[in-house]
Queue: 2 jobs
Job 1
Amino acid sequence: MIGKLLSDILYVLAYHVVRYRRAVTKNNLANAYPEMSDSKRKEIERAYYHHICDLIIEGIYNLYANPRSIMKRYRFVNREIVNRYYEKGQSIVLMSAHYNNWEYMITSLNYQLMHHGVGVGKPLQDKAVANYITRRRGRFGTEIVDQTNVRQVMQYYHAHHVPVAYMMLSDQSPNDVHKSFWTLFMHQETPFLYGAEYFARKYNMPVLYYEVTKVRRGYYEVRFTPLCENPSEVPQYVITSRYIKMLNETIDRQPEFWLWSHKRWKRTRPEGMELRQLTLN
């Protein structure tokens, strides 16, 4: 109850007073949904700011909550799909996005699954803050890995036959636009990280997409869907294409829960870089 009240107060400050990144959010929505009416986009914008304020409060709560409390708020609906890979001794790649609450997933990953959980992401610039958040995120056993070190981590666990679930949020803006998968996404030229597919193909790790649904304020359900069982046997870019298609469908269902204030389309496709069609088969 207190958390909801704090979030509501934060919404007034962020949306009406500070006007936090409202121009970015408005522009992103307009470009992503050009056929949508202004009033409908405004409705999504306001709902988004309510949601992101909820996420801020939940993010603070996540740093201190016990595992039982988090699992009560973040329920895996069909974890048996994931656990069957563990029983086969297989590591897996879990692909998703900054949609609904991802902090609960990072913190509870190792606790909720049979696999050893590894969260892969970009490091924060402030090292002191980054070290503290990493310790809090990993207090239930999830290993937090900088994306620049993930190659060594995967090599180690593969060599020692440890079944690992690698969580990768693949909707971040890539640092290197020359090593990205460029395609049309929401009517815009968009670079996607290719690392999840690259490593899945290298170690032939099954890939699953997971969608997070907001049941009500503060409560979520996670559902896993296999994207590819044998990555080494499918053509290049199929896994990334399937991921992008499912992400687009997820966002279209309830767009207010994606990270619209993020400058997702700040990159420009280099001259000569191919704009690829999605290859789903």
Note: The chain has a mean pLDDT of 95.
Job 2
Amino acid sequence: MVKVSVMGSTGVIGKNVTFKLARADTVSEVVLFSRPESIDKAKGQSYDMYDALAAEDIDCLLTPSCDYEDLADSQIVLISAGAPRQEGMSRRDLAFVNGKIVSNYARQVAKYAPDAIIVVATNPVDVMTTIALDASGFDRDKVIGVGNHLDSLRLKTYFARRLNINSSEIHTRVIGEHGENMVPLLSSTTIGGIPLKYFIREVELDIREIIQTLRNAGNTIISKKGATEYGPAYAISNLIITLITNSHKILTVSLYLEGEIAGVKGVSLGVPSVLSKKGNAMIVPIHMNEYETNKFQSAAEQIGKLTEEVRKSLKEDK
């Protein structure tokens, strides 16, 4: 049984992750961390959640707090705090505002929960993963961004729905930036064990349309309901529970690279990772065709530039 802290617990994503974790068999306490001006909202959410948990006979301690000392002994700290993305905004538009928030929170985690794993969900998540790594001073295996985990789930679902095939038969992955420069690994996608390139000879499938739908998924949801909610929250919860249970599943998360994939160094991007209770246990080597390799390296270049701009901005603000 572990303690998890959610920084940004009153936000749309944070509150959903909190409730999902509270219902998990492996979590004994969730700290609903918020700013002082939002503490009443965090308390209200905890009361509401307790009522729901009672209906399922679940005993999980919910601790609303704006005191950093309450982060102590957390095995996982989720940083989901930050300005939300509005319709028409790119994740990059948020980089400079959210960089300050993530940097401050990561420093506090390092001070009060030095043994924790930091999971970063704040957008743009690849940039924020590096900012959290810088500010915390943690080993890179203990700072993990949500990365392309949700993108990979979305692609899997799209193929399943289009082909009317159970999603368990779809094995696919998206890497690179969680954003415009995401890289679907179509060259290694299989359906029922059959490589996609052979499968689509027998089935009418518009790959370009699927990829465009994938890239626009977040904006499509935001335009219709105002925010993405269940998908990100459940993907994040799935990632955290994978870490807690030491299951060694392979998820596509954002990690700081030192040349493991396509020679990319000095930037955080979504890559396949074996996750354990210690964080990233191993970055999984992958084969890419020339097009995918070029797109991945291009994503690295662009995210690297934005990361350096945010780093410079943070230094100037000190």
Note: The first strand starts at residue 2 and ends at 7.
